[in-house]
Specification:
alpha/beta; TIM Barrel; Arc Repressor Mutant, subunit A; 2 domains; nine-stranded mixed β-sheet; 40% helix; binds iron/sulfur cluster
């Protein structure tokens, strides 16, 4: 049985211009109906009562009212008794003392805040309705309620963003003493406000310079990079996200969530109205052994430590070097992959060309 659960809250109070996630404009009535559907979905699925992690993401989980958040935590209570890491994503625009109290009361012990940038002009340009001060207040509230394991999401390669603006944002983020940071470069998807307006991210060279600068800066500040886009203080790596990268099974609950269980990947319906009618509507993709071997490599190579070769052998009954015979040797010879302490990983230099490596592995 899966030991990790992702729950997707599809509501947002307003739409960010770069957003391509499943989201629905929040209304109290719709959110109440959605909570009933989530309750039904959980009762119809046989969920492991001994979960290791729960991650509530979105959308914007904090777009729910305090009472609705409480309702959600009550629904999840039968599964949260042994949870080691209980995370919720927070938008500083929709967070307050009452919600912080609610998180504490139900055992949430990790928060992921959408910080993005501290630059007021850029926040406005990307359609975020909060300020650096709001993030600061959110951090204070969380810490006052005993939630000290806090991750900040930071965006770079934003239209009009200079290296100077980026440096200031990273310094401002660090000044808030997070335990974890996640980096996202702007991707302009067609069906977003940016896509429709023809906005373009910065050129590839500037984007690469920005990424390199952030990686070096965070390492200097004591954050170790454990995944392409994720940095943490010692011992504060995200357990939940590591389950994805280690290719473990996980439940996906809620409209717009995805999951993987027993060799099947599934995407729950993205349509809220369909979900409200039947919360079990989903699209299933059966995974054959070849798919799974490749996907495990694809996810594992995102980790700095790489993919555990013993785990691969245990799972598939074949050594990695046999499964990818010829290709692996070529990649080792080129210096794009290395084997160390029972793990196969990218080198520092080849992290940036992971997609090229994966294409070679796939061929
Ligand atoms: S980025 Fe997050 S908060 Fe913004 S619209 Fe998308 S899901 Fe909602």
């Amino acid at each position: 049985m899966a030991e990790y659960l992702y729950l997707h809250v599809p509501f947002c109070r307003h739409i960010c211009y770069y957003c391509d996630f499943t989201h629905v404009a929040y209304t109290k009535n719709k959110a109440d109906e959605w909570l009933e559907a989530v309750e039904k979905e959980l009762s119809l699925k046989r969920i492991n009562p001994c979960l290791k992690t729960i991650y509530i993401g979105g959308g914007t989980p904090t777009s729910l009212s305090k009472d609705q958040l409480e309702h959600l935590f009550r629904i999840l209570k039968p599964y949260s008794a042994n949870v080691q890491e209980y995370t919720i994503e927070i938008n500083p625009e929709t967070f307050d003392k009452d919600k912080a109290g609610c998180l504490k009361a139900y055992g949430v012990n990790r928060a992921s805040i959408g910080f993005q940038t501290s630059d007021p002009g850029l926040l406005k340009a990307i359609g975020r309705n909060h300020s650096y001060e709001d993030v600061k207040k959110t951090m204070v509230l969380l810490k006052e309620h005993g939630i000290r394991n806090i991750s900040l999401d930071l965006m770079y390669s934003l239209p009009g963003q200079t290296m100077e603006m980026l440096r200031k944002s990273v310094e401002d983020a660090l000044a808030l003493s997070p335990t974890h940071m996640s980096l996202y470069s702007l991707l302009v998807e067609e069906n977003t406000v940016f896509g429709r307006r023809g906005i373009e991210p910065l050129d590839e060279e500037t984007e690469a310079d920005m990424y390199e600068w952030i990686c070096e800066k965070l390492e200097r500040e004591g954050f170790h990079q454990y995944e392409i886009s994720n940095f943490s203080l010692e011992g504060k790596e995200s357990l939940h996200n590591q389950a994805y990268w280690k290719y473990d099974d996980f439940y996906g609950i809620g409209c717009g969530a995805s999951g993987k269980e027993n060799h099947i990947r599934y995407d729950n319906t993205k349509s809220l109205s369909l979900y409200l009618k039947d919360p079990l509507i989903k699209e299933e993709i059966p995974l054959n052994t070849k798919d799974e071997m490749f996907e495990m490599a694809m996810m594992g190579l995102r980790l700095k430590q790489g993919m555990d070769l013993n785990c691969f052998t245990e799972r598939f009954g074949i050594h990695f070097e046999e499964a990818f015979a010829g290709k692996m040797e070529r990649l080792l010879e080129k210096g794009w992959l290395k084997i160390e302490k029972g793990h196969i990983s990218c080198t520092k230099e080849s992290f940036g060309i992971l997609n090229t490596i994966l294409i070679e592995l796939m061929d």
